[in-house]
Every structure is written in C-alpha cells, then in structure tokens.
Amino acid sequence: MTSVKMSDIEWPAVVKLSQNDELLYLAHQRDWLELACLYQHHFTEEDQLLDSAGHRYRIRANPRTVHEDPVGELPQLLQQEQNLPLTDFIKWVQNHATALGQCCVAKLAFTTISQGMEIVRTLDE
C-alpha cells in the first residue's frame, strides 16, 4: 500500500463506508476534500474510495490529534494492489440502490466501472 497523490485518482469516484450500503458519489477532487474534512475522524480501516478506473484506495484516518491547521489532519488514501472486481462493484451499486428505496435492483447491471459511477450519480439526483 502506498499513499497516493490526488492527481492519481480518476474522477468521479465513490466512497464505500464499511457500516453503510449507501455510496458517496464524488464528482471531483474538491468533493473528496470536503468529505475528508467533514468526516476525517469517523473513517474506519475498512472504508474505501473507488475511482473510475477501478482502483481501490483504503482511507486511513490520522490519529485524533489537535492541529492548528485542520488540513494537516486529512485522511490518507492508500492504493490497494488489487482493483475492485466489476462484480463486487455491481453488488455495491445494487445495495446502494436498495438503501435508497429503489425497486428492481437485481436488474441493475453495467459492464464498466465508469457506467456504474454514472448509475450512482443518477440514483443520487
């Protein structure tokens, strides 16, 4: 696992929180920075960010220490060796749709991670 630069991530992306079936859609890097600032002390070791290329990143929150500059506390994204299999992402999107109260989620299918990202975006509208 290596820490990544924001420029390595292919946007849009989604965050999958371990304790929740809903996915958090992030259209741009600024959406991640906003979420990271708001949620910085609440991430767990199982939380992940998935980018449009299928790259998985673990979200590692920094210890709860007080800093003068809150940006210094932002969680790190650590790229995983294995990309998320498309079948797993389909399940994530189906669970997300179910959590939002959508019907017929078993019919929700796509052939690329990017198509799945677009479905998540439209479900959130």
Quick overview:
This protein has three helices and six strands; from the N terminus they run βββαβββαα. The chain has 125 residues and is α+β, with helices and mostly antiparallel strands. A six-stranded antiparallel β-sheet has the order 1-6-5-4-2-3.
Describe the structure.
Helix 2 (86-99) packs parallel to helix 3 (113-124). The model has no long low-confidence stretch (mean pLDDT 89). The protein has helices at 29-39, 86-99, 113-124; strands spanning 2-3, 13-16, 23-26, 48-51, 56-60, 76-79. Helices cover 30% and strands 18% of the residues. The chain has one domain (2-124). Strand 2 and strand 3 (23-26) form a beta hairpin. It has a 6-stranded antiparallel beta sheet.
Helix content: 25-40%
Structural class: alpha+beta
Element string (H = helix, E = strand) = EEEHEEEHH
C-alpha end-to-end distance: 34 Å
How many strand units?
A: 6
Query: Sheet with the most strands?
Result: 6 strands, antiparallel
Domain count: the total is 1
Q: Roughly how many Å is the radius of gyration?
A: 15 Å
Strand order across the biggest sheet? 1-6-5-4-2-3
Low-confidence stretches: none
Strand content: 15-25%
Count of discrete alpha- or pi-helical segments spanning 4 or more residues? 3
Instruction: Give the overall form.
Output: globular
Mean residue pLDDT: 89
How would you summarize the topology of this molecule?
Layout lengths: L1 E2 L9 E4 L6 E4 L2 H11 L8 E4 L4 E5 L15 E4 L6 H14 L13 H12 L1
Antiparallel strand pairs: 1-6, 2-3, 2-4, 4-5, 5-6
Helix pairs in contact: 2-3
Can you tag this structure with a few keywords?
125 residues
